[in-house]
Amino acid sequence: MLPGRGRDGRVTGLSRILGTRTAWTAVGDGAFFCPRCGGDRNYQRLTGRRRLTVLGMPVLPRGTSGPVVECAACRHHYGTDVLDHPTTTRFSAMLRDAVHTIALAVLAAGGAGSRAALEAATSAVRAAGFDDCTEEQLAALVEALEADTGRITGAPCGPGLAIELHEALDPLAPHLAATGRESILLQGARIALADGPYTPAERDVLATVGAALTICGDEVTRLLVAARTPS
Predict the structure, then answer these.
(1) Which residue pairs from 142-147 have beta carbons closer than 8 angstroms and sit at least 24 positions apart in sequence?
(2) Helix (H, G, I), strand (E, B) or coil at 51
(3) Which of 66, 68, 103, 116 is within CB 3.0–4.6 Å of 194 for a Cys-Cys bond?
């Protein structure tokens, strides 16, 4: 039998007299993705002090609670790990930056001099959210990337370019389903194929993209073959 309840489960007089109450204190705030609301919401980060109550009046401390994250809209409490999930706005920006970085990497592997590859890259980058992207801008950025990483057009994916790819893709990969990771890799593959078959340098870049997206090597190979097959 539970304390404070009779054999039939009804609340007894004792549980009406004794109880606990938590007094919450806000220690931070911000924006997060609320799973219950299904969108971006403001939140407060709370810590609490629990007290024993007698007839509703707090009398004795019972320790601490939290920290918790409280949604400002639905008031639901979550563990602080909910803040590890990016907001919708942040996720969109991460996805946009990932596609942009992949496009530049593939172009740097040898496609920057091809009009077809530049057109395919520009289309992918615009679809990802950079609406005002132009072929001229991408070509200029490829030159700047090569100067920054010390890489020569058409060379294999060196450490500098690999770091750029991992910085853009590593934070994104855990928040994507398998189909989403594959879709991003295939966008890079279509840019590479726009001016003909994959070059060794393009395959090297796409293999690095696949690794950063946590796609195994065999699956990367399968997807690159599939991208060459007309749908």
Answers:
(1) 142/104, 142/107, 142/108, 142/112, 143/112, 145/104, 145/105, 145/108, 146/108
(2) strand
(3) 116
* Token code pair at residue 95: 């996805």
Contact criterion met (CB below 8 Å) for 183 and 93:
no
pLDDT at residue 58 tops 70: no
What's the Cα-to-Cα distance from 162 to each of 103, 108, 190, 213, rounded to whole Å? 13, 12, 20, 12
Q: State pLDDT tens for residues 158-174.
A: 777 888 899 999 999 99
Q: Which residues 6+ apart lie within 8 Å of 135 measured at CB?
A: 115, 118, 119, 121, 122
Token pair in block for residue 76? 């639901």
Cα 28 to chain centroid distance, Å, stands at 22
DSSP 8-state assignment for residue 12: P
- Chain segment 101-151, per-residue pLDDT in tens: 999 999 988 877 789 999 999 999 999 999 999 999 999 998 887 776 665
Tokens 């058409």 map to which residue? 154
Task: Measure the CA–CA gap between 50 and 71, rounded to whole angstroms.
Answer: 21
**Close Cβ partners of 186 (under 8 Å, ≥ 6 residues apart):** 223, 226, 227
Quote the mean pLDDT of the chain.
Answer: 86
Task: List the one residue out of 108, 141, 135 whose CA is nearest residue 121.
Answer: 135
For residue 69 the two structure tokens come to 């994250």
